[in-house]
Amino acid sequence: MQQGTRVPVHVCVIRRHQDGFTPTNSPNIGRFQEKSHLVMTGSIQDLDGIESRELEIGGSRCRRVALIDSGCTRTLVHESVCHQWRRSAAEVITVNGQRLQCEGDAEVRLAVPGCRAVEFGRRSVACAATGEETGLKIEKEDFVVTFDPTRRRWVMSWKWAGGRAPGELGGAVDEYPVPEEARAEYEAELENWIRDGWLSEYDEEELGPAMGSIPLMAVMQRTKVKPVMDFRSLNKHVPAFTGDADVCAERLRRWRQMGASVALVDLKKAFLQIHVEKALWLYHTVWFRGRRYALTRMGFGISVASSVMQAVLDLTVAQDPRVAAAVSTYVDDILVNEDKLPATQVAEQLQIYGLESKAPQRASDGTRILGLRFWGEPDGDLRWGRDNDVKNVPKPLTKRKVFSICGQLTSHYPVCGWLRPAASFVKRLANETASRWDDPIEGDLVPQLVEELVASVNATDPARGRWNVSGDTMTIYTDASSLALGVTVKWTEIR
């Protein structure tokens, strides 16, 4: 290369510096101590006093450059000399064998003033970028979860009630009866768990005698059969502190403030992406086809599972201020304000911290978010409606079934109009006509009112409306009774 000639190089971006870090995979080790250092594959010829020379990267000059000819396939530059770069999930292997996660990558032009020749290897130059990569840790009253940067995975452990592990867990059955029509799909999914390592055949020599098993069961959903576990015997010994737990309805109110340009990023089998500390596997086993397996991932039914998932997501998005400013999380769902950041970049941030997500779904294209159905209108407004169908009233009607139907009708919907006080009134009547939850409702009044509620919802459902609101002036009408607090909000002539 002639003096001053610029060569395109694919490089990584270093955001923060870690003393003594050396990205190399050969015995010929280089070391750098300054933020503005470049580490690259290749050799520079006839360049005396290289440590005091300058290197030009993308038009920026860097002093005190350390150059490594080590056969390493990674090239690192500091963020300050790279004006445009892409976030990516590449990583570098350090001299001690650890993996350091990259921040991103970029294409830059490289020039060495005063250098007569630069040789690059025949292989294309790969890159990675890193900051101060240390293990992240969350400790709460009821659990501990850590991020392993080497394996890029989260590992949780619950805390026992009273600080002491129990004896053998009691359990009446190993597996609840599975409907014959669901058996094939149920077993196929468990076989996938075994193949993916989520279920690992229990090794008593390594782990010791198993102290309990979690009963398996099959849950038939609208489009699939899902294996789930009954964690009641375990949860008796794992207290859950829910004082800071989020409320779904309140989260939806906050999400409405994010406007119409929003997209959902949903994790793939979110809870099963969290590993369980190996020391706890002896309490975390299941039986399948006559064999005992350790459940190596966190099950949805563990009392602390939702809190763990929420904490992991919150800490993950907090690692990048741009992501933190653009998203709002609820358990395993992430809503992204795309006016601030594309949802694809949020998905890349999750991948950096070992969390796999589905393709982002824009609300305006039609999607489901926290049990609501969304779609966009030609005028740019975002509309929402009910996503569950309540068509048939079960018979005989008991107080438990009345409360269940009323819950499905009103649930966490942000707006229900007349439906919410009407459902409260029906529940009060059910309390007066049946003392126990599974006693049949006496008389015809409550069943008749439930039928009328369901028919009215199917005809003109009040649980719907415009999602995005704007403006800084509104009028609020409110009235309270023993049944409900009614509120009507009016803004810009829209109710």
TrEMBL record:
Pfam family, one: DUF7047
DUF7047 domain sequence ranges: 398-458
Top-level taxonomic group: Eukaryota
Transmembrane region(s): none
InterPro entries: DNA/RNA_pol_sf (IPR043502), DUF7047 (IPR055475), Hepadnavirus_pol/RT (IPR052055), Rev_trsase/Diguanyl_cyclase (IPR043128)
One GO-annotated biological process of the protein: DNA biosynthetic process
Protein name: DUF7047 domain-containing protein
